[in-house]
Amino acid sequence: MSRIIHGARISLLVGVAAVVVSLLVGVTLGLLSGFLPGRVDTVIMTVVDVTLSFPQLLLALAFVAALGPSLLTIIVVLGLTGWERYTRVVRAEVLALREKEFVEAARAMGASPTRTLLRHLLPNTFSSIIVMSTLQVAQAILQEAALSFLGVGTGSAYPTWGQMIALGRDFVSVAWWLPTFPGLAILLTVLAINLVGDRLRDALDPRVG
Fold it and tell me: Which pLDDT band, with edges at 50, 70 and 90, does 1 fall under?
């Protein structure tokens, strides 16, 4: 049980940290893509489309296999393979907001593009970002567990739920609880996070309900 609790720290750390990396990259590119139509938007969205054409877990597996398993590698790789959805969502929000009256008023009052982005456009994307981030934490935990199960996760120095399942599967006939309890921990954690994400979506998105 103590290993499962310790594994929870690693899994949650990876989930939250990977989402922070994705947020920083995805939101920044989404703001630029939505606010700067033309070449900048085209280049960014082309990169997004190309990246999304590959399964995220496959990309993560390839990068981790090339760089070597470690806690930092897992966080960075999962973060840098999960930013595209943030870019798309933020870009769509900015495209819908940039012609609104309050944005036009800010421009008329002499607000710089940077101030317009950070003061008037970015805060209006927070509800979508919060909901997506919550759901992405659950996805990152699942991906980390899958990579650890395959032996290319955080490494042996950090016991994780996926690693525990991989080690316990050889003893399932005599000690079924070894892989079962870490699997239940993953199931319950991901389910709880998804339920929180659904509640946040219902509370923050006026179009729902």
Answer: low
